Amino acid sequence: MKRRNVYLDGVALDAAHRGRGPYIWRFGVFQRALHGVLVVAFFLLAFTGLPLRFSCVVWAPKLMALWGGARTAGLIHRWAGGVVLACFAAYLGYAGVRLARAEDRRRLLWGPDSIILQPRDFREFWQMLRWSVGRAEKPRFARYSYREKFNYLMVFLGLGVIAATGLLLWFPELFGRFLPGVVFNVATLVHSYQVMLLAALIVAFHFFDVHLRSGKFPLDGVMFTGRATYGYMEEEHPLVAETIGDVTQQQASPRAIPDRVAPPAPRWLERASTALGLLFLALGVLLVVLGLWDALC
Question: pTM for this structure?
Fold first, then answer.
């Protein structure tokens, strides 16, 4: 398999391209598109919302000026919020269709491929702690590790709270017909600080786990390209790799079907995923710095 990814000192910047081949499809088009749209919408919400909420901080006027003023920033913020709500609706619809079509719904929700936290994940967490001090074998993860499930839960609940409180603040006349005024005061506080909390969690946990830990630094672009090497799957999700079979005897599937052999990503996609991944990492760090600046000053 010919390697065409961006390299640094002979090592692919994108961890999803490390290890022996061929490539394996990990994520479908819908998951990747939804992830990309949510990332962009989240950063737009954060960088337009923070200067609106903390206008007294020294960096707020400069950031506001980049958007063309408070009115423009507010419009962008609301449009980005609408995109997040649309993503939630699309995801719930996608999950509902999958659940309705599933032959074994219990397995979908509670089986080895489920994204929902289960007792097994807590056992694997404890085993991982023991492994880190040489007291146990390294846990062998299925489709999603306990870290990925926590990431999912953290973002799902965090964006859900932001979306719900944002709706209250977006349409106060509508909700004010049947809600007391104190609810909007609480929603204002929860909405603004939830963004900072979620940003801190994303950078401190999600970014570190996905991109910055040993073997992954500085980037894992599997969610951008949808594919990773078979060696990557053996390392990160060995129970899934075992079910794929003999990859040398399989034809590459042009369709993004999880666990099927995949062709290498186009060169433009590899470069774009590397550039976007590094850009989002930098924006995440900047977001936390601005939030801490406000909190400490």
Answer: 0.86
Looking up residue 139, the CATH number of its domain turns out to be 1.20.950.20
Number of separate domains in the chain: 1
Q: Rounded to whole angstroms, how far apart are CA atoms 115 and 267?
A: 31
51 SS3 class: helix
d(CA 14, CA 177): 52
Would residue 231 count as lying in a domain?
A: yes
Asked if residue 2 is part of any domain, the answer here is: no
Residue range 16-60, pLDDT digits in tens = 998 888 999 999 999 999 999 999 998 998 888 888 777 778 888
162-207 pLDDT, tens digit per residue, is 888 888 988 999 998 888 989 999 998 888 778 777 777 777 788 8
Q: Which domain holds residue 24?
A: 7-296
Please give the C-alpha separations between residue 247 and each of 162, 238, 243, 255, 270, in angstroms, as whole numbers: 43, 14, 10, 16, 22
Residue 45 tokens read as 């919400």
